[in-house]
Design goal:
The chain is of the alpha/beta class. The protein has 16 helices and 9 strands. 46% of the residues lie in helices and 11% in strands. The protein binds coproporphyrinogen III. The site of coproporphyrinogen III (CP3) has 23 residues, from strand 3.
């Protein structure tokens, strides 16, 4: 597919470990409710209708790009489109977040799920939204595609909503280890197809969100998360190459996963995202010199004055260094954030030029 020439390749350069002119920056949930223009669109349509309508998904993806000098766009969608495509109902309830009216409760429920090979047909709307957005971006910045990691998706499929302990989902590891692996393998197979489809459609970097890493700990992570994260990165890169497509960098964001950074650094991901509870120097020590780090300002730090935001960003970039670094928050931006404070964050990041 032919797309407009990319004019700002800072994010991709940083991801690949190449020198950059200034530190690239984007923000998780940058297309979201803190923007009045997003709330306006959202008041007219249901959340998943927005995801499923390429014109609407494209429009809100571009909103933060039109407002701020961000270095990347991320396609408007959700990690829960995979369980939906496997046949589960998901509702987005105001004030509550995503809810599955009939979550998986025992292994026999696995037979109700669809096949991994069918997922791509059902998610054609995401591919269409990506292709449309690549054109409408006119090469201004690269477009990020994404998915949830298998454990994070499994957790939602069993819990049916957010949970403090993840006790229902984790109980499967202790009661039904074989079926847990079967479910994780199904999600992995579907995810690989889905990510390759996103690259074919025009995604230029892929981020895998392991949002619930904190619940696993080192032993469960090694058994139930790491092998699937490895399959995803290896298979996606292999299939992208086999189809003659340009190789693309991949990011893993194991939120709350201090304990797993060293293991995750052994995988073929180019970028490792860290949340604000991790010290950048410690993260660098754990992942070694050959990975790009992404993060990690506390999302709450944007409640500070603009002057203080600028100081905190200065300290953050000093800790990470200008190279092999992508600035971001340590998690998604909050819905009650003043957009002007995000502008101050971005401006402060861009002050950091390469001296080499
Ligand atoms: O701008 C972007 O980052 C792209 C779009 C995006 C959304 N969800 C849109 C969204 C992305 C990358 C996601 C990922 C996602 N979705 C994750 C991983 C990142 C993370 O937060 O850890 C997770 C766990 C989900 C599942 C999900 N979707 C939850 C838990 C919620 C409720 C929390 C909330 O912020 O309200 C959502 C809803 C959601 N996804 C919204 C948006 C803009 C808000 C819903 C709304 O508009 O009503």
């Amino acid at each position: 597919m032919e797309f407009p020439v990319l004019k700002n390749d800072r994010l991709l350069r940083a991801a690949k470990g190449e020198k950059v002119d200034v530190v690239p920056v984007w923000v998780m949930r940058q297309a979201g409710r803190y923007l009045p223009e997003f709330r306006e669109e959202r008041s007219k349509a249901d959340f998943f209708t927005m995801c499923q309508t390429p014109e609407l998904a494209c429009k809100v993806t571009l909103q933060p790009i039109e407002r701020f000098p961000l270095d990347a766009a991320i396609i408007f969608s959700d990690i829960l489109v995979i369980p939906q495509a496997l046949g589960m109902d998901v509702e987005m309830r105001p004030g509550e977040g995503p809810v599955f009216p009939s979550p998986l409760s025992e292994p026999s429920d696995l037979s109700k799920l669809g096949k991994a090979s069918e997922v791509c047909c059902k998610l054609q709307y995401v591919f269409n939204a990506i292709t449309l957005t690549r054109h409408r971006l006119q090469g201004k910045v690269p477009l990020i595609g994404f998915c949830g990691a298998p454990w994070t998706i499994m957790a939602y499929m069993i819990e049916g909503k957010g949970s403090k302990t993840m006790s229902k989902a984790k109980s499967w590891f202790y009661k039904y280890p074989e079926e847990s692996h079967a479910l994780l393998q199904l999600i992995t197979d579907a995810t690989i197809e889905y990510l390759v489809g996103q690259v074919k459609a025009g995604a230029q970097l892929l981020q895998v969100f392991e949002s619930h890493a904190e619940h696993l700990g080192p032993y469960l992570f090694k058994e139930y998360a790491l092998p699937y994260l490895k399959l995803i990165v290896d298979q996606v890169k292999e299939r992208v190459a086999a189809q003659g497509l340009d190789s693309i960098p991949m990011t893993i964001f194991p939120k709350g996963g201090h304990y797993c950074l060293k293991d995750v650094a052994q995988l073929n991901y180019d970028v490792i995202g860290i949340d604000w509870t991790v010290d950048p120097a410690k993260a660098r020590e754990l992942v070694g010199p050959n990975k790009t780090l992404q993060g990690n300002l506390d999302p709450c730090a944007l409640y500070a004055s603009k002057d203080n935001i600028s100081k905190m960003v200065q300290e953050m970039v000093n800790r990470f260094g200008v190279h092999r670094y992508i600035a971001n928050l340590g998690h998604g931006i909050y819905p009650d954030m003043d957009p002007e404070h995000l502008a101050a964050f971005i401006e402060a990041v861009h002050k950091h030029e390469s001296k080499e």
